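DATA SHEET
Item: assembly model
Revision: 1
Owner: S.N.
Input lines:
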Amino acid sequence: MKQEEKEKREKLVQLEQQNEQMQQQSQLEQLTQREQQDQQMKQDAMEQQESIASSPELAPRLEWFKLRLERVAEVVFHEFTVDYGHSCVLIYMSGMFDIKQAERNLLEPLLGKVFYMKDELTQYLFSRNQLPVTELHWVDRAADALQAILQGYGILLFQGEPRMLVLPYANYETRSIVEAPNETVLRGPREAFIEDIGVNISLLRRRIKSPLLKTEEYTFGRHTSTRVVLAYMEGICKDSLIHEVRRRISYLDIDGVLSSSQIEETITDRSSSPFTQIQYTERPDVVSSSILEGRVAILVDNTPIALLAPTTIFSKMQSSEDYYQNFVAATAIRYIRYLFLFISFLLPSFYIAISTFHAEMIPFRLLVTVASAREVVPFPALLEAFIMEISFEALREASVRIPKSIGQTVSIIGALIIGTAAVQAGIVSAAMVIIVSVTGIASFIIPSFDLGLSFRLMRFPLMLLAGTFGIFGIACGMFLIYTHALNLESFGVPYLTPMAPSNRDSAKDVWMRAPWWRMNERPSFAAPNNRNRQKKQARGWKLEQEDLE
Amino acid sequence: MRKLIISLLLLMMLTGCWSSEELNDQAFIGVLIIDRNDDGIEVTFGVPLTTNLASGETSGSASGGEVFGYFSRTAPTLEEAMQKVQGDLSRRANIGQNRNIVVGRRFAEEGITPVLELAARNPNIRMNTNMFLVDGYAKDEVAKATVTSERFFISILNKYVEHRTALQTTIKDFMLSKASGGDGLLPIINFSNTTEGAMVGKSSTVGTGGAAIIKKGKLVEPILTPDQTSAAQSIRNQLGNYFFSIKSPTENGWIGLYSTSVDVKTKIVKKEKKYHILIKPTSEVEAISNNSTMNFAIYEEVKKLEDRIDQFSDQLHADTMLIIQQTGADVFHFDRYMMVKYPQEWRKIKDHWREYYRDQLAIDIDSDIRIRRKGSTVRSFKSQFIEHNEGD
C-alpha cells in the first residue's frame, strides 16, 4: 500500500513539474513573440511616423519623439499651453541644456502674453522674431530636431505648426583651460587646448583675428556625431592641400570618432611607417603659427589635441620655445637636440658595435676601463644592452600608467634595481648603465613625443644589426631608415623637406633659428604661392638711424 | 614592410655566428716586446689584466693582483713565437690596440726587418705604432720595471711620445722611401737604479735615453747621447719644451733659457754643383735665469746672446748630423727632398744614394733663435738686489 501511494505521489509531482515547465515555456515563447511583435510594430510605427513627424499636428509628432527617445532617462518633455489654447512642448536633455535661460527668455515671454489666433503666435515667433534669443532658428525635419536635442539644444513644438524652434542653450560642463601639461615652455603662452572644440576654436580665433581664418565644420561618427573642424588661412594655404584634406576625410565613415588619432590614422599617407606624418600639438600658439605658415589644422571635438598637416621631420624637431627664445640660444639648443637625436637612436648600437667588432677604435685606456667593468658581466654586450633598454622602456611605460600616489616608489625601486643593484651584482656593467641613461634622457629631448618614440623603437632593430654586423650593420640600418624617410610624404610634401629635396631658403629654419626680422618668407613647402610673410627690412629703423647719424 | 621583417628575422639567425667578439674574450696587447736570444726570437705580449682591475673601484691595485701581465715564448721566427704566445693565452690576442713595439738590443743589431715585414702585410698592426729600443734584453728590463706614475707601463711610453719627451719613431718612418728604407732612429728607454732616474727611491723605473741609429733595418754604432737625440728631435720637428744654458756674452756666468718649441724648415738647394741640405731651426726662447752681469735692457748684449744661442744650436745640430751622416744612415730621409726637387739628377744617384749622402751631401744649418721674453728683471737677481743692498 505504502509503495503504491508513494508511486502515485511521485507521478503527481512529476505531472505538476511537467505542467509548470510547459507553462514556463509557453510564457517565454509568448514573451519573445510579443517582443518581436512589439519591435516589428515599433519599426512599422517609426516608418509610418517619419511622415507623421513633419505634420503640423502636435500629438503624433510628440509620439514620434517619445518613441525615439524611449528609455532615455535624461530627456524632458515639458508640455504647456499658451493662451488661448495653443499647446506647446519643449523637449531637451537635462544636464546639457540651460533650462534657466530657457525659462527666462522663452517661457516667461510666451506665457506672459495672450495670442488670440494661431497666426499671431507664429508671426511673433517666426516672422517678427520677437523672442529675446539670438541664434534662434527653426527646423522642419524631425530627424534634425532629434539631432539638435542630442547635441544639447532645446526644441519647441507647436500645435498646428510644422516648424520647430531650436533654442541655442546647450550648456554642459567643460574643463577649464590649463597650462599645457606635455609641451611646456618657459617664455611662451601657457594655454593648452581642452576637450571642447568651441573653446579650442576660440583660442585660435583669439590669436588670428582675420576673416581669412576659415573654420570648416564637418560631422563624423554615425553614433557620436563628432564635430571636426578644418582650420586654415585662405589665400596662404594651398587650395590643393585643402581639397586633399577634405577628400581624405570624406572617406571616414565610422560608428564613433572619439579622438583625433582615428582621423590621423585614416588620412595619413603611410600608416605603417614608424614615423608619423602628421604632427599633433596641444598648444594653440603652435597651431596658429602653423596655420599662418599655410598648413591645415584639424580639430576634433572631445580631444585636446589638434592635428597639423603637412609636416616634416624637421618641424617635429622644433619646439615652440625656439621661437620665443633668443635666436642665438635657440639655434645652439637646436644643435644639441639634433646631437641627442642621434644619441638616442645610435648610442647603444654604437657601443655594441665597437665593443664587439671594432675594439681597435676605442682608446686604450678607455678600453681597459670598459673591459674591466664588463669583466664580471656574464652576458654578451648585445644581450646586456637589450636587458637594460627593455627594462628602461618598461620603467618609462610604468611611470606613465602608475597612479601618482605610488609613482615615486616605483621610480625609486627602478633606479635602485637598474642603477645600483644590477651593477653591484655584476649583472650589467656600469658603462651600460651610463649608456642607457644617456639614451633615455636623449630620447626625451626630442620635442615631438611620437618622433622620440619612433626613434626609441627603431633603436632595437638597430641594436640587433649592430650586434650582428657591427658598424656595417648600423650603416645598413641607417641607410634603410633614411631611404624609408626619403620615401615618405605628408600630404604631398616630402618628409625630409627642406633637406631632401633641398631648398636653401627653407633650410635656414632647420640649421638655425633665423631671427624674426629675417624670416621674411613662409616655408615654401606649405605656402608656395604666397610666401611673403613680412615687410622686408623689419629693422629699417636701424638703417634710418644710421642715415641720420 | 614584409621584406623588412623577413630581413630582420634573417639577421637574428646570424646573431652569434658572425665574427663578433666580446671585449672579455680578447686580450688587448698594449706592448709587443721582441728580443733575440740563442734559441731564436722571443716575443712578449704585454696585456692589461682586466680581471684584476675590479669594476667600480678606481685604483687597479684594489684586488691585489697584477694589473699588467707579460706572456712570452721563444721560437725561430717572429710569427711562430706569436702563435706560441697565443697558445698560452686563454683569450684571443688582439694586436689592433697595440701602439708600442719595444725591441731588444740584440734583435735590433740583427735587424728589425721581421717587424717591418709583419707590419707591412698585417692590417691589424698600426702603421703608426711607436718603436722603442732597450739597450739590453728588452723583456727582462720591461717586465721588472716598476710603474708608479701611470697605471700601465705602456701609458708611460705613450705619454713620452705625446709630450714629445722622447723621439717618436713609428713603423711608417722606416718605410717612407725606397732609397733610404729601413733607416731611422730608435729612441732608447732606460731603466734606472734607485739613486737616479725617473723616480728616485724605486728601482728600475722607466726613463728616456738617447737614440740608436738604424741603417737598413740594423742597428749601427754609435748611439746618440740625449743631447744629440734632442737635436735629432728638433730636425724632425718634434722638439717640445727644452731647457738649456748658454755662456753669458759679458763674462763667465751663464744664462738659463727655455724653448717651448722649435720649428724646423728643411730644403735642398744646389750650390756650385753640389747639393746642400739646408736645415733652418727657428725658435723663440724665454730667459729663465741670469747668473751673469748681463743686462737684458741693453740691445747689443741681447743681440750678442742671441748670436751665441744660434752658435750653440748650429753646433749641436751639426755635431749630431755629422755622427749620423758618417754612418751612412739617412735617418731623416733627405732623399725625398732630392727626389722632389731634382728628379733628373735623382735618377742618376738613387742607386747609390747612401754613399752619396755619406760622402758628398753637404748639410748646412742656419739657426734663427730669438729671445722673446726676458723676464721682469733686466739684470740678474744677484746684481739687482743683493749687491745693490750691500752698496747701501
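QC remark: The longest strand of chain A covers residues 75-82.
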